[in-house]
Structures are given as C-alpha cells and as structure tokens.
Amino acid sequence: MNAQSALPDKALVAASFSRAAGSYDAVADLQRRVGQQLLGLLPADLAPERWLDLGCGTGHFARQLAARYPQGEGLALDIAEGMLRHARPLGGARHFLAGDAEALPLREVSCELIFSSLALQWCANLPAVLDEALRVLRPGGVLAFSSLVDGTLDELRQSWRQVDERVHVNRFRHFAEYQALCAGSGLRVRHLQQRPLALHFADLFSLTRELKALGAQNRNPGRPLGLTGRARLRALGEAYERFRQPQGLPATYQVVYVVLEKG
User: Fold this and answer.
1) Average pLDDT over residues 82-97
2) DSSP 245
3) 223: closest CA among 10, 42, 6, 4?
4) How many CB atoms lie within 10 A of CB 88?
5) Is-contact 248 201, C-beta < 8 A?
6) Which one-letter DSSP state was computed for residue 100?
7) For residue 50, is it within any domain?
8) DSSP H/E element including 193
9) Does pLDDT of 215 surpass 90?
10) 114: Cβ–Cβ under 8 A, 6 or more apart, which residues?
11) Could you tell me the CA-to-CA distances from 175 to 14, 26, 146, 171, 262 in Å, in that order?
12) CA-CA distances (angstroms) from residue 141 to 78, 135, 138?
C-alpha cells in the first residue's frame, strides 16, 4: 500500500474535526506545544503584508499570528466548517475561509507567509499542497509547517498488535518522504527536522478520550468499524501497560518541522 492510499479520506477528516470543534481546545496540549515550536522557527525579519493560517482549526494560531504581525492582513483556512464556526467569533484573522490545502482559493503571488501546524498530515496529495504554496507565495515568502511522521503513537500501535492485526492507528508519511518532497518542491529548504514529543496519560481511557476530543481518532482505510468489545479493550490496556513510565502511559508523537522559502 502506498502512502497516499493509506491516508484517510479528507471528507471523513473534515467531518471528524467539525464534530470536535467544541472540545478541541480543552485537550490540545500537543497542538499548542508543536505550534509554538513552529512559531519559533519563523525568520526573525519576516514582516508579512498578508499571511495564511492553513488548517487553522479553532484559530488559536491565527490569533498568535495576528499579535505577532499586527500590520498584516490575516487569512485563516480550514476544510472543517465546524472549526471555522468556532474560530470566527474569536477573531485573529480578517477572513475565515472554507477550503482545501490542495487547491487554495487564493490568487497567485498573494501571501508572504503560509503557516500550518499539524494539519498537512491529513492531506493525501502533499505535492499538490507544496505546488499551491509555490503558486501563492510572493518571492521571499515562507511556508512553515509541522506535520506528523511515521512512528507516531507507536506505543498504541504495538499494543494493538497484541490484540489483532487490524488498522487501529493513523498512518503517516515517512520522514524521508518529507525530505524528498520538500527538496523537489521548487522552494528552498531553510529548516527540516524531525523531533519526538511525548505526552503522558494516567490510563488508556484518558488517551483514547483525548484522541476522540481532538477529532484525531483512527480515520485510515481498513480501520475496524463498530464498537470495540470490553475484552479486547482490556487486552489492549494490559498490552499498553508494559510502556508505563513514572509520569504515566506515554504517547509519543514524531513531528517534522519544515520552513521553506520561495526564491
């Protein structure tokens, strides 16, 4: 199975995140931490007249960008209408747009910054996203994004393998694929690095509850449908216990941070 066919259907992703809009911010520790890391990688001399928060979710980083670039015009775009309904009243961007990262509803050469934190892992056609960024950015403009890499939630994946062989954990691209796609994008690579980030939970229920509240539960082809029986969940919990650390049960995310510049 190739990487593109292994990724979830974008309509399912949009519906899942729309349903999660109301609960998302309360459990978005991972998103906050990764997004702050990405903000710290933006060039210090960048002063965009127009910026885009791509995959804006509830608008948290649109508001951060608005504070950072008060003279710029902010655009926030998401494929999930429910997220946009949540974000609009909170402000930050001047315009909130429904749209797809693979076909941006923006003019050519119209932005100096495209910022996207933990959204592009849901795009099956990443080359199209990079082509769109190249089209929309002005010369000297920057695409900064973070995304999830293969190996994310490996503790959960390994634990499920003790129970059955079904697909229970979202699949993501390998780091080498990000390297190759960015190198061939027509944009100059200023930064490209993979870093792990571990969260800890008191028990398995706390982890799965958070994934559901984030809208990030399993959306891959081949996922099991219907309810999971108590006996199988008990077996999963027992398998996961072998990973327990003093801080709790770890859930490790493999994150790629990328900064690309248009020549």
Assistant:
1) 92
2) B
3) 6
4) 14
5) yes
6) B
7) yes
8) strand 188-201
9) no
10) 51, 52, 54, 133, 136, 137, 141, 142, 143, 144, 145
11) 25, 29, 12, 12, 22
12) 21, 11, 5
Amino acid at 47: A
Q: Does residue 225 fall inside a structural domain? A: no
Residue 205 lies in a domain: no
Element (H, E) at 261: strand 249-261
Domain count, the chain: 1
Average pLDDT (90-100) is 95
Residue-level pLDDT at 210: 79
What CATH number corresponds to the domain at position 55?
3.40.50.150
The pTM score is: 0.85
Any domain includes 178: yes
Residue range 148-201, pLDDT digits in tens: 999 999 999 999 999 987 877 888 999 999 999 999 999 999 999 999 999 999
The kind and range of the H/E element at 178 are helix 175-183
Three-class secondary structure of residue 94 per DSSP:
coil
pLDDT at residue 141 above 50?
yes
Q: b/e for 175-190, b at 16 or more Cβ within 10 A? A: beebeeebeebebeee
Report CA torsion sign: 161, 165, 167, 172: positive
Task: With cut-offs at 50, 70 and 90, classify the pLDDT of residue 13.
Answer: low
- Taking CB atoms within 8 Å and a gap of at least 24, the contacts of 8-13 are 8/122, 8/170, 8/219, 8/220, 8/221, 9/219, 9/221, 10/79, 10/100, 10/122, 10/123, 10/124, 12/219, 13/79, 13/80, 13/122, 13/219
Instruction: Please compute the mean of the pLDDT values over residues 83-98 and round it to a whole number.
Output: 93
Query: Which residue do the tokens 């309360």 mark?
Result: 26
Residue of 17, 223, 10 lying closest to 122 (CA atoms): 10
- DSSP label of 123: -
The residue segments making up the domain with residue 143 are 3-150+171-198+253-261
